[in-house]
Amino acid sequence: MSYSTDNPWFYAVADERRGPVGFADLQALVSTGEITANTLVWSQGMADWTLASNIPELLPSVGLSVATEIPAPAQLPSVQRPPVTTPSRRLRTVKPASFGLWLGLSITAVFFYTLGIAGATMNEEVSAQSSVWIALGAVGLIASTVVGSIYIYRAWLAIQDDDIPSRTTPGKAVGFLFIPLFSLYWMFVALHGWSQDYNRLVSVYEYRDAPKMPEGLFLAFPILALVSIVPVVGVIASLAMIVVGPMVFFHICKAVNYFAAKAGRQGY
Protein backbone atom coordinates (compact mmCIF):
# COMPACT_ATOMS: atom_id res chain seq x y z
CA MET A 1 0.00 0.00 0.00
CA SER A 2 1.54 3.26 -1.18
CA TYR A 3 0.64 6.61 0.35
CA SER A 4 2.20 9.83 1.55
CA THR A 5 1.35 11.78 4.68
CA ASP A 6 2.00 14.96 2.68
CA ASN A 7 -1.01 14.38 0.41
CA PRO A 8 -4.60 15.40 1.23
CA TRP A 9 -6.65 12.67 2.94
CA PHE A 10 -10.32 11.70 2.92
CA TYR A 11 -12.30 9.68 5.43
CA ALA A 12 -15.79 8.18 5.32
CA VAL A 13 -18.43 8.56 8.02
CA ALA A 14 -21.82 6.91 7.49
CA ASP A 15 -21.26 6.56 3.71
CA GLU A 16 -20.37 10.24 3.42
CA ARG A 17 -16.90 11.13 2.25
CA ARG A 18 -15.30 14.00 4.15
CA GLY A 19 -12.19 15.99 3.35
CA PRO A 20 -9.74 16.72 2.00
CA VAL A 21 -7.80 17.28 5.22
CA GLY A 22 -4.13 17.28 6.07
CA PHE A 23 -2.60 14.29 7.85
CA ALA A 24 -2.14 16.32 11.04
CA ASP A 25 -5.85 17.15 10.97
CA LEU A 26 -6.59 13.47 10.46
CA GLN A 27 -4.60 12.63 13.59
CA ALA A 28 -6.49 15.32 15.49
CA LEU A 29 -9.77 13.67 14.47
CA VAL A 30 -8.45 10.41 15.91
CA SER A 31 -7.85 12.09 19.26
CA THR A 32 -11.39 13.52 19.28
CA GLY A 33 -12.88 10.14 18.46
CA GLU A 34 -14.41 11.12 15.12
CA ILE A 35 -12.02 8.71 13.41
CA THR A 36 -11.70 5.24 14.92
CA ALA A 37 -9.84 2.10 13.95
CA ASN A 38 -12.84 1.08 11.82
CA THR A 39 -13.04 4.33 9.84
CA LEU A 40 -12.26 4.07 6.12
CA VAL A 41 -9.55 6.47 4.91
CA TRP A 42 -8.01 7.16 1.51
CA SER A 43 -5.28 9.30 -0.06
CA GLN A 44 -3.62 9.58 -3.46
CA GLY A 45 -1.40 6.62 -4.25
CA MET A 46 -3.66 4.10 -2.50
CA ALA A 47 -5.41 1.56 -4.72
CA ASP A 48 -8.46 1.46 -2.48
CA TRP A 49 -9.92 2.74 0.78
CA THR A 50 -8.59 1.07 3.90
CA LEU A 51 -9.26 0.99 7.62
CA ALA A 52 -7.56 3.65 9.71
CA SER A 53 -5.98 0.86 11.74
CA ASN A 54 -3.93 -0.06 8.67
CA ILE A 55 -2.14 3.31 8.69
CA PRO A 56 0.60 2.99 11.35
CA GLU A 57 1.31 6.73 11.44
CA LEU A 58 -2.35 7.46 12.10
CA LEU A 59 -2.90 5.16 15.08
CA PRO A 60 0.61 4.48 16.41
CA SER A 61 -0.39 4.38 20.03
CA VAL A 62 -3.23 1.90 19.65
CA GLY A 63 -0.98 -1.03 18.88
CA LEU A 64 -2.31 -4.58 18.73
CA SER A 65 -5.37 -3.70 20.77
CA VAL A 66 -6.86 -2.21 17.63
CA ALA A 67 -7.47 -5.68 16.28
CA THR A 68 -10.04 -6.36 18.96
CA GLU A 69 -12.06 -3.36 17.80
CA ILE A 70 -12.29 -4.44 14.17
CA PRO A 71 -15.12 -6.73 13.07
CA ALA A 72 -13.82 -9.83 11.34
CA PRO A 73 -13.74 -10.09 8.49
CA ALA A 74 -13.62 -6.39 7.60
CA GLN A 75 -15.40 -5.99 4.27
CA LEU A 76 -13.75 -3.32 2.14
CA PRO A 77 -15.24 -1.94 -1.07
CA SER A 78 -14.15 -3.85 -4.18
CA VAL A 79 -13.72 -0.68 -6.24
CA GLN A 80 -11.24 2.15 -5.92
CA ARG A 81 -13.88 4.64 -4.78
CA PRO A 82 -16.70 3.61 -2.42
CA PRO A 83 -20.17 5.05 -3.08
CA VAL A 84 -19.72 8.10 -0.89
CA THR A 85 -20.33 11.75 -1.64
CA THR A 86 -17.65 13.60 -3.61
CA PRO A 87 -16.10 16.39 -1.49
CA SER A 88 -17.43 19.83 -2.28
CA ARG A 89 -15.26 22.77 -3.23
CA ARG A 90 -16.07 26.44 -3.44
CA LEU A 91 -14.99 27.47 -6.92
CA ARG A 92 -13.11 30.66 -7.64
CA THR A 93 -14.85 33.07 -9.99
CA VAL A 94 -12.73 33.43 -13.12
CA LYS A 95 -13.49 35.05 -16.46
CA PRO A 96 -13.25 32.98 -19.65
CA ALA A 97 -10.14 33.02 -21.83
CA SER A 98 -10.19 33.49 -25.61
CA PHE A 99 -7.53 31.44 -27.35
CA GLY A 100 -8.50 33.07 -30.64
CA LEU A 101 -7.74 36.54 -29.26
CA TRP A 102 -4.30 35.54 -28.00
CA LEU A 103 -3.46 33.67 -31.21
CA GLY A 104 -4.68 36.54 -33.39
CA LEU A 105 -2.50 39.05 -31.56
CA SER A 106 0.51 36.73 -31.77
CA ILE A 107 0.07 36.14 -35.50
CA THR A 108 -0.35 39.87 -36.08
CA ALA A 109 2.90 40.59 -34.25
CA VAL A 110 4.81 37.97 -36.28
CA PHE A 111 3.27 39.21 -39.54
CA PHE A 112 4.27 42.85 -39.08
CA TYR A 113 7.71 41.94 -37.78
CA THR A 114 8.26 39.83 -40.89
CA LEU A 115 7.21 42.73 -43.12
CA GLY A 116 9.55 45.05 -41.27
CA ILE A 117 12.56 42.75 -41.53
CA ALA A 118 11.88 42.08 -45.21
CA GLY A 119 11.50 45.80 -45.89
CA ALA A 120 14.78 46.59 -44.17
CA THR A 121 16.65 44.57 -46.80
CA MET A 122 15.12 46.44 -49.76
CA ASN A 123 15.60 49.96 -51.14
CA GLU A 124 15.75 53.02 -48.90
CA GLU A 125 12.11 54.00 -49.42
CA VAL A 126 10.80 50.65 -48.30
CA SER A 127 13.33 50.48 -45.46
CA ALA A 128 11.93 53.70 -44.02
CA GLN A 129 8.49 52.16 -44.10
CA SER A 130 9.79 49.01 -42.43
CA SER A 131 10.13 50.87 -39.13
CA VAL A 132 6.35 51.31 -39.17
CA TRP A 133 5.83 47.56 -39.64
CA ILE A 134 8.26 46.78 -36.84
CA ALA A 135 6.47 49.25 -34.55
CA LEU A 136 3.13 47.61 -35.32
CA GLY A 137 4.71 44.24 -34.63
CA ALA A 138 5.93 45.51 -31.26
CA VAL A 139 2.42 46.68 -30.38
CA GLY A 140 1.05 43.25 -31.29
CA LEU A 141 3.73 41.53 -29.22
CA ILE A 142 3.00 43.68 -26.17
CA ALA A 143 -0.74 43.06 -26.51
CA SER A 144 -0.17 39.31 -26.90
CA THR A 145 2.08 39.28 -23.82
CA VAL A 146 -0.48 41.17 -21.73
CA VAL A 147 -3.34 38.87 -22.76
CA GLY A 148 -1.20 35.77 -22.19
CA SER A 149 -0.22 37.00 -18.73
CA ILE A 150 -3.87 37.58 -17.86
CA TYR A 151 -4.74 34.04 -18.91
CA ILE A 152 -1.89 32.55 -16.86
CA TYR A 153 -3.14 34.58 -13.88
CA ARG A 154 -6.67 33.23 -14.36
CA ALA A 155 -5.36 29.69 -14.70
CA TRP A 156 -3.63 29.90 -11.32
CA LEU A 157 -6.61 31.67 -9.76
CA ALA A 158 -8.92 28.86 -10.86
CA ILE A 159 -6.97 26.21 -8.92
CA GLN A 160 -6.49 28.12 -5.66
CA ASP A 161 -7.94 25.91 -2.91
CA ASP A 162 -7.94 26.09 0.88
CA ASP A 163 -7.49 22.33 1.35
CA ILE A 164 -5.17 21.59 -1.57
CA PRO A 165 -2.74 24.51 -1.68
CA SER A 166 -1.01 25.23 -4.98
CA ARG A 167 2.71 25.93 -5.14
CA THR A 168 2.34 29.67 -5.75
CA THR A 169 -0.18 32.50 -6.04
CA PRO A 170 -1.57 33.96 -9.29
CA GLY A 171 0.28 37.24 -8.73
CA LYS A 172 3.65 35.57 -8.18
CA ALA A 173 3.09 33.16 -11.07
CA VAL A 174 2.80 36.07 -13.50
CA GLY A 175 4.99 38.69 -11.84
CA PHE A 176 8.10 36.52 -11.51
CA LEU A 177 7.98 35.79 -15.25
CA PHE A 178 9.15 39.36 -15.86
CA ILE A 179 12.31 39.05 -13.76
CA PRO A 180 15.32 38.83 -16.11
CA LEU A 181 17.16 35.47 -16.06
CA PHE A 182 15.10 34.26 -13.09
CA SER A 183 12.18 33.94 -15.49
CA LEU A 184 14.01 31.09 -17.26
CA TYR A 185 13.59 29.07 -14.06
CA TRP A 186 10.20 30.47 -13.13
CA MET A 187 8.63 29.30 -16.40
CA PHE A 188 9.01 25.75 -15.10
CA VAL A 189 6.94 26.71 -12.04
CA ALA A 190 4.39 28.92 -13.78
CA LEU A 191 3.66 26.46 -16.60
CA HIS A 192 4.77 22.91 -15.77
CA GLY A 193 4.06 23.38 -12.06
CA TRP A 194 0.61 24.72 -12.85
CA SER A 195 -0.24 21.69 -15.02
CA GLN A 196 0.78 19.37 -12.16
CA ASP A 197 -1.24 21.29 -9.55
CA TYR A 198 -4.23 21.45 -11.90
CA ASN A 199 -4.22 17.71 -12.63
CA ARG A 200 -3.83 16.96 -8.92
CA LEU A 201 -6.80 19.14 -8.00
CA VAL A 202 -9.18 17.75 -10.64
CA SER A 203 -8.13 14.23 -9.63
CA VAL A 204 -8.77 14.75 -5.91
CA TYR A 205 -12.15 16.39 -6.49
CA GLU A 206 -13.00 13.92 -9.27
CA TYR A 207 -13.90 16.48 -11.92
CA ARG A 208 -14.38 13.77 -14.52
CA ASP A 209 -15.45 16.21 -17.23
CA ALA A 210 -12.40 18.44 -16.73
CA PRO A 211 -9.80 18.51 -19.52
CA LYS A 212 -6.55 16.87 -18.47
CA MET A 213 -3.42 18.93 -18.93
CA PRO A 214 -0.50 17.30 -20.85
CA GLU A 215 2.29 17.84 -18.33
CA GLY A 216 4.95 16.85 -20.85
CA LEU A 217 3.90 19.66 -23.17
CA PHE A 218 4.00 22.19 -20.33
CA LEU A 219 7.50 20.96 -19.48
CA ALA A 220 8.68 21.14 -23.08
CA PHE A 221 8.00 24.86 -23.49
CA PRO A 222 10.27 26.13 -20.65
CA ILE A 223 12.95 23.67 -21.75
CA LEU A 224 12.80 25.08 -25.28
CA ALA A 225 12.91 28.62 -23.89
CA LEU A 226 16.05 27.73 -21.94
CA VAL A 227 17.70 26.09 -24.95
CA SER A 228 16.77 29.02 -27.19
CA ILE A 229 19.54 31.17 -25.65
CA VAL A 230 22.19 28.64 -26.72
CA PRO A 231 23.95 29.50 -30.01
CA VAL A 232 23.02 27.47 -33.11
CA VAL A 233 20.60 25.03 -31.42
CA GLY A 234 18.75 28.04 -30.07
CA VAL A 235 17.41 28.74 -33.55
CA ILE A 236 15.82 25.29 -33.72
CA ALA A 237 14.43 25.66 -30.19
CA SER A 238 12.94 29.05 -31.06
CA LEU A 239 11.19 27.59 -34.11
CA ALA A 240 9.84 24.75 -31.96
CA MET A 241 8.49 27.31 -29.47
CA ILE A 242 6.38 28.81 -32.24
CA VAL A 243 4.57 25.47 -32.44
CA VAL A 244 4.56 24.46 -28.77
CA GLY A 245 3.60 27.90 -27.41
CA PRO A 246 0.13 28.03 -29.01
CA MET A 247 -0.51 24.44 -27.91
CA VAL A 248 0.28 25.39 -24.30
CA PHE A 249 -2.02 28.41 -24.38
CA PHE A 250 -4.76 26.37 -26.04
CA HIS A 251 -4.80 24.01 -23.05
CA ILE A 252 -4.57 26.90 -20.58
CA CYS A 253 -7.64 28.49 -22.16
CA LYS A 254 -9.49 25.16 -22.05
CA ALA A 255 -8.81 24.84 -18.32
CA VAL A 256 -9.78 28.44 -17.56
CA ASN A 257 -12.99 28.15 -19.58
CA TYR A 258 -13.86 24.87 -17.84
CA PHE A 259 -13.71 26.45 -14.39
CA ALA A 260 -15.39 29.64 -15.60
CA ALA A 261 -18.32 27.60 -16.93
CA LYS A 262 -18.41 25.35 -13.85
CA ALA A 263 -18.52 28.33 -11.49
CA GLY A 264 -21.29 29.85 -13.60
CA ARG A 265 -23.37 26.68 -13.43
CA GLN A 266 -23.04 26.61 -9.63
CA GLY A 267 -24.05 30.26 -9.30
CA TYR A 268 -20.74 31.78 -8.14
UniProtKB/TrEMBL annotation:
The keyword Transmembrane applies. Pfam families: GYF_2. Keywords: Membrane, Transmembrane, Transmembrane helix. Residues 9-58 form the GYF domain. It comes from the Bacteria. The chain crosses the membrane at residues 99-120, 132-153, 174-194, 217-244. This is GYF domain-containing protein.
